[in-house]
Amino acid sequence: MPPCDFVPEKYESYPYERMQKIREQNIAPSLRTYYKKPLLLHQGHMQWLFDHEGQRYLDLFAGIVTVSVGHCHPKVTMATQKQLARLWHTTNIYMYPAIHEYAEKLTSLFPDPLKVVYLTNSGSEANDLAMFMARLHTRNFDIISLRGGYHGGSPYTLGLTSLTHYKHGVANGFGCTTTMLPDVFRGPWGGSHCRDSPVQTVRKCSFACLAKDQYIEQFKDTLNTSVPKTVAGFIAEPIQGVNGAVQYPRNFLKEAYQLIREKGGLCISDEVQTGFGRTGSHFWGFQTHGVVPDIVTLAKGIGNGFPMAAVVTTKEIASSLAENLHFNTFGGNPLACVVGAAVLDAIEEDGLQKNSEDVGTYMLLELAKLRDKFEIIGDVRGKGLMIGVEMVTDKDNRHPLPAEEISQIWEDCKDMGVLIGRGGLYSQTFRIKPPMCITKSDVDFAVEVFCTALQRHVERAAAK
Ligand SMILES: Cc1ncc(COP(=O)(O)O)c(C=O)c1O
What we know:
Elements: H1 16-26, E1 41-45, E2 48-51, E3 56-59, H2 62-65, H3 74-84, H4 97-107, E4 116-120, H5 123-138, E5 143-146, E6 176-179, H6 211-225, E7 233-236, H7 252-262, E8 266-270, E9 295-298, E10 309-313, H8 315-321, H9 334-349, H10 352-373, E11 377-383, E12 386-391, H11 403-415, E13 418-419, E14 421-423, E15 429-432, H12 440-463
Parallel strand pairs: 3-13, 5-6, 5-7, 7-8, 8-9
Antiparallel strand pairs: 1-2, 2-3, 4-10, 9-10, 11-12, 12-15, 14-15
The structure holds pyridoxal-5'-phosphate.
Residues 64, 122-124, 127, 150-152, 237, 241-242, 270, 272-273, 299 line the site of pyridoxal-5'-phosphate.
EC number: 2.6.1.18, 2.6.1.40, 2.6.1.44
Protein name: Alanine--glyoxylate aminotransferase 2, mitochondrial
Cofactor: pyridoxal 5'-phosphate
């Protein structure tokens, strides 16, 4: 494990067993924990986490793609402490410096005409509001999303979220329609030149590389059959997050945006996971597709773990909401705005977008070597530090590796000190989305651990 001179405080809270009991009795059971024996995490420092026994872990999942600049980043912590002593809260019915300073700073990172921000508390709330704005502004109702997408768990956004295990069989999703996911690895069309990633699929190209056109035909089919002549909008993540870093063919989003605009709809980019430099080449994921959305939603990395989120849009679209009152007590409160501003400073001062590109590309290429070595790695994909490693029974049939086999590899990585996320319809994809401050030597360590876990899997399979 790479050295780290940070010494965690001594753990002084309840014993592990008592925590487990509280969990069983007093915490909603819908909140599930990772791992057979869930970790009790006690402290964080940049890319490192420490459990109650002082064991150190390399965090490759960042609290689900949320700790953008590093756990307890000193600059963010200091700015927050300063603001804590000055003013915690007053709503936006008054003026206070933090919201103005932050609004100016955040919107300066967007191209024209995306210059107006509405601050919220979570990604679901941001997407709720984006849907609401699109409907109000266009006076249309229907919104289209891609299958496999996750856009939130609120009753409104559940209609956009298209993953069975988040659906609950209650009435929801009025006016929401999903369309085929242009997944160039697992979908019906794809090949070895389609996506914007240093690593392409191992698939042979189908139809002389016309995967994008085939998927656009499916998109048109949805527009022709499942929605009225005019729509309120279309929402997509630039790279699907929860579904396991799924990437679309180049130019797919560009053409889809055009088709939606022809139907009077607005295009919403859900940057909850892809924003703030994580994809490396650009600050926002939509820029990697050469499009300018009408509405952009932000959360997770925006606050490095502080509960805050945002909707950025044009003045014209935002004005539709101003025809009546729309209020939010906590959105844009002074603490949140100070945290948000310090996160933006840290990204800039620590060079984290460039680090995402350099370290992310290095990691993708190292993982691609493992894919070539192990039959059960079907795909390595992503951009910057938004990486997916999809596990299969073999590369030709692309059937997902059985869950219990994937889980054992994942548990082994954890036992060797590396925390990785899971995603995909069958939980078949390892998600690697660490704090953007990780280094190449962290990557070397993680890849070595992953390789060891895969070798152990091969040995277990051979012994059966
Ligand atoms: C792409 C995307 N959009 C929206 C959300 C919802 O954000 P929140 O959990 O903050 O409500 C998530 C959460 O995982 C997400 O990944």
